[in-house]
Amino acid sequence: MTVEIPVVPVTPVTPVTPEPVVPVTPVVPVVPVVEPVKEIMIPKERFDEVNNKHKLLADQMATMEASKLAMEKELADMKLASEGTQTSIKETTDKLTSEVEKYKTLVGEMVASKLQAIPEDMRELVPAELSDEQKIAWISKAEEKGLFKKQAQVVVGTPLNHSSNADALDKVQKMNPLQALVSFYSGSK
């Protein structure tokens, strides 16, 4: 009996090197390590530019605040002056109103005195609808034109033209005394 053994191809065996033994450490829960936040670095030129703009804006804001305070003070001063002016205007208005009333009464008295000077039968000619100032003007014009003068009573039988007598009287007044005597004695014959 022979037994046959199958032949299996043999592969060369590589020597096995023992793996290094790692000591086993107990398992500790792993806590993630938080790295500190790294600050973002800004270039110096950009920092200076932003910083200069900030300082400029701060200066402008301070200037604006100062001008705002100055304007508020000026506004308060203007309000005080306005109140003083309004008081002054009211006082002046009251004073002028009283003076106007005095003048109105004076004009009224003048109209009354002018109307008294007009003859009673002619007072109806003065228009009643006129103001006092207009009445004074109307009466003055009428007096200038001779409306309210009394007409001289004409005697019937006397000449109406007295100019010839006035001429003779005027001539006599211009004569010297000798000429006056000659004229007088020559006219009586």
Helices and strands, with pairings:
Blueprint: H1 44-117, H2 132-144, H3 163-174, H4 177-187
Helix pairs in contact: 1-2
Average pLDDT for all residues = 81
| Low-confidence region ranges | none
Tally of individual helices: 4
What structural class do you assign from the helix and strand content? mainly alpha
Cα(first) to Cα(last) distance is 234 Å
Number of separate strands: 0
Quaternary form: single chain
Question: What features would you describe in this structure?
Answer:
- The protein is mainly α and 189 residues long.
- It has 4 helices and no strands.
Give a brief outline of the structure.
The chain is mainly alpha-helical. The chain has helices at residues 44-117, 132-144, 163-174, 177-187. The chain starts with 43 loop residues before the first helix and ends with a helix.
